[in-house]
Design goal:
single chain; alpha/beta; Rossmann fold; 3 domains; five-stranded mixed β-sheet; 10 strands; binds guanosine-5'-triphosphate; binds magnesium ion
């Protein structure tokens, strides 16, 4: 258990996030306040809870507007880094992407979502560090992204972290990253959970392009061609494929052919 936040607090956050009525929300916030750590590092969080509680108690009816934060997706996929405070999320983000988040040995250093872009084997994946206060307006990002990387230091924290994730009704592919992570392994794991394939297109007589065409698993040559240019499907004659999915290099295939990850594709037009 980290010393900074209790499991009861995480559970209370989950209950607050799932609350629908004003009464349920008030009960959730009161529970959060009573389980929130009292040390100085949590002062801002306690103040936030108190102010929310005061606002809700003042309301006499009507619907409170629910603020949400969304981050426009950039690149081929968006993945949220979620974990307890001081689990090393910012450190991971800084190693995998161009982002320069604040890294410090004090809890709740990251107070706002931090975005980074990870380029890997011709694929661009957007990573977002979610602050460990698990504020519902930030957890909304995790609810809408393509996958979750759960970062942890102590594996005893995992059941509660998973419970918190399901408390927020997050149903996305998820991987778990322990503190001994190796950047290359993490990149592979992130890619592996997304259920996508990388296709490298080439023109006859030329080398494949570096930027991968990223498609869902099970995509056909027709879907790949359509992604390159809509006219490619109209004038499609045949394609050649190099890679794991074919028996011999440069095999001639039709539009219905199902591609595999890392295939090289050459489209011939009529
Ligand atoms: N020894 C060791 N220290 C680490 C490791 N990863 C991170 N740290 C240190 O742990 C502290 C917190 O790291 P961060 O990456 O800021 O953790 P975080 O999860 O982003 O924390 P918050 O944003 O505060 O919630 C920093 O002092 C890091 O230098 C690690 O793998 N080993
Ligand atoms: Mg951080």
């Amino acid at each position: 258990m980290p010393t900074n936040v209790t499991i009861d607090f995480i559970k209370a956050q989950g209950r607050f996030a799932a609350a629908v009525t004003r009464e349920e929300k008030i009960a959730g916030l009161e529970e959060m306040l009573s389980t929130c750590p009292t040390h100085k590092g949590c002062d801002t969080m306690r103040a936030e809870i108190k102010s929310k509680l005061a606002k809700l108690k003042k309301q006499t009816g009507g619907k409170a507007a629910r603020r949400v934060t969304t981050i426009p997706k950039e690149g081929d996929a968006q993945v949220s880094l979620v974990g307890l405070t001081q689990s090393g999320k910012s450190t991971l983000l800084s190693k995998l992407t161009n982002a320069k988040p604040k890294i410090a040995a004090r809890p709740y250093t990251t107070t706002k979502p931090v975005i980074g872009s990870m380029e890997w084997t011709g694929v661009k994946i957007q990573l977002v560090e979610i602050p460990s206060t698990f504020h519902p307006i930030h957890m909304n990002i995790a609810q809408n992204c393509d996958g979750i990387a759960l970062v942890y230091k102590n594996k005893d924290d995992l059941p509660e972290l998973r419970e918190m994730i399901s408390g927020f009704r997050i149903r996305k592919p998820m991987i778990e990253i322990d503190s001994g992570w190796d950047p290359e392994d993490v990149k592979k794991k992130i890619w592996g959970m997304l259920g996508l394939i990388r296709i490298y297109c080439k023109e006859p007589g030329k080398k494949p392009v570096g930027k991968a065409l990223v498609l869902p698993c099970g995509s056909t040559v027709e879907e790949a061609a359509n992604n390159v240019h809509k006219d490619f499907v109209k004038f499609f004659k045949f394609a050649r494929v190099w890679g794991d999915s074919v028996k011999h290099a440069g095999e001639r295939v039709g539009e219905e052919y199902i591609l595999s990850d890392k295939d090289v594709l050459e489209i011939h037009l009529a």
